[in-house]
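The pair is set out directly below:
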Amino acid sequence: MKGSLPASKLSLWLLVSVCCAASMAWYVTTIWSLNQPPGFSDLYARWWGAHELLLHGRNPYSPAVSHEIQNVIYGQPLPATPNDPLAIGGGFAYPLHAAFLLWPTVYLSFPAAKLVVLGASLLATLLSLECWLRSMQTKLTLARWLTLAFFVLGSFPCLEALKLQNLSLIAAALISFALFLLSAGRLTLAGVVLAFATFKPQFTITLIPWLLLWTAADWRRRRSMAWSFLATLTVLVALGEALLPGWISDFLNVIRAYRHYTYGHSILDLWFTPSWGAVAAAVVLAACAVACWPCRSEPATSARFCFATSLVLAANVVVIPTLAPHAQLLLVPAFLWLLRCTASSKAHRSWVRIFCEPAVWILLAWQWIAALALTLAGLRYPAAVLHRFWEIPLYTSPLLPVAVFLLLGSLVWSSGGPVYEAGREPIVRGVNMANPDQ
């Protein structure tokens, strides 16, 4: 993200980012979460499940543990339904190795564990931003880095995850760290970290196939990543089996119930109905595969690899069966990639860059515009009055992942066909992706 900005503009952008983060924090804590139950927490189910498994040897997927969790969160067990006859949907809905990550906290009280996870999530988010920037071979001044940090931390997906104590921030950070290690040539360690990131499997369902394809394209040099990933994942599953034989079956049962508990549908299901959403997801994945195929032989330090990874993660957000905005943390590398290209090339402005890219930035900015408006309104009206408008900052949330994916995809094809021409470096938005600073 080279290119100089006057100090006054840098200061203004930093001030804007702070105002956006502050207004979004006020919106999330005062308006969005106004009517949530006092004990509502995504962390409690994971923490109590890990606590009971590691300290007392109980099955965290059992109805008994699930009902204990529901008692704390909702004040009573959830009623049984035809889709969830055991009422386990609100319980421990993670792979068993998620308990290993929470192991240090099970000896603490839950309030203390919340503080530990909050601190770890904040630190992990800041480190993940730096990992993405380093993966893209991008260095920023302190003012620019702080501006990006406030925008990331002050986004609704991040603040939602922090408010709910959701582990998405940790999962996204592990993914960014694995990609950073790949760019640094530490393939074995990258495979280990990627295996731990599967504790939130929906965040890796497109990334793992892409990285395995990338590894296979140069098996002799890259095989250590695949072997370390498979070995680490095998060890994690085996340790789970040693602690709780048959845990995979129990986990799948909880997942089936959890999908109904959380309305487990993708953004495409929302737009096209579940039946046609599956077809649309197949189209998205096929288009992603076509766009990324020419990048499979690229080194992890190349901008083409960064582009492909950003596209893959955007596709992941589009197709996974969740509407939770905190999954959009996986869009961070896509926006960083777009910023990098914008700063690297001022010429060759294609129709995509002129018309489509501003629309995506507007969709992103809407959350802060609406949150700032509600914050200003909060100077006059009580939160109870403003709560009727709580959905307004989220209006663009179902559109943003699809828009980002379509923008990245259209950048590949905007020259009238695939930009990966034989014997030539790809040109995306006028940027030589072998050397994007040209």
Remarks:
- Residues 415-438 have pLDDT under 50 and may be disordered.
- The radius of gyration is 22 Å.
- The longest strand covers residues 427-428.
- The CA atoms of residues 181 and 190 lie 5 Å apart.
